[in-house]
Amino acid sequence: MPHQRNIDMDLLRSFVTIIESKSFTRAAARVTRTQSAISLQMKRLEEQLETRLFERGGRGVEPTEAGVVLLGYARRILAANDELVGRMVEPDVDGEVRLRAPDGFAGQHLALVLARFQRAFPLVRLRVETGPPADGPAPDLSIGIHVGATPQDGDELMREALIWCVAEGAEPMQPMNDAGLPLPLVLPPPDDPARAAAVAALDAAGVRWTLAFEAGSRWTMKAAVGAGLGIGLLPRGALPSGLHRLAEAEGLPALPDAIAWLAVRPDAGRAAERLRAFLVQQFDHRP
User: Which pTM was predicted?
Assistant: First the structure.
């Protein structure tokens, strides 16, 4: 009977890793198995569920419709498993951890993961702040999460493509390029690494631009671009409805990935080290 089948946790972890890395080869390296071994795992999983889980195309491995359904369940099951293991194996971990992360990253990627950590380690007192960390954790900061185009020393968490975006229905930008008019841009503040990467790409491509709006937060960026004030840049996963992605064919250069990594103060303590390990495992360089 279907309800009597038990799915091996290792199969689910390998499946999620394949989907997040879009590659059997990269997934095999992350879970420290050979590619043939991870392929056999997925064959076994498809046989147990009696459905095809993967599509292979020009953009790498993608889930089928059934694979998308499984992905949601698998992530919840793995999260519950990891919370249980943390709570049972090290129930006495306590202490305060002060963490700072960029506002957009904290809201989109970090909040749910921290909630899982709190359930796994209920004695740990988290103090979370948003804002750009200093170069390396400050003396009173346990963990600093950074986002930029070039990772520094620390543990890499994830990479996400930066994209140009514009309001749906906005006038095409190509006529402005043809006329030599500067493109109106909505950019983050000068100290934001994404702005530096965007400006460098535009200057290297010889694209003329002008600053139409300086957005102090991702929410402000989305609002300004959505109002039609100019072209903005966002991580691919943060593109909301009402905005659409601009391609290179529309006269804009490619942008580098936004890379998130964390740095831990060496003497931050046991609780901070457990949070570091938990974050690295939960994100696992997901794209």
Answer: 0.63
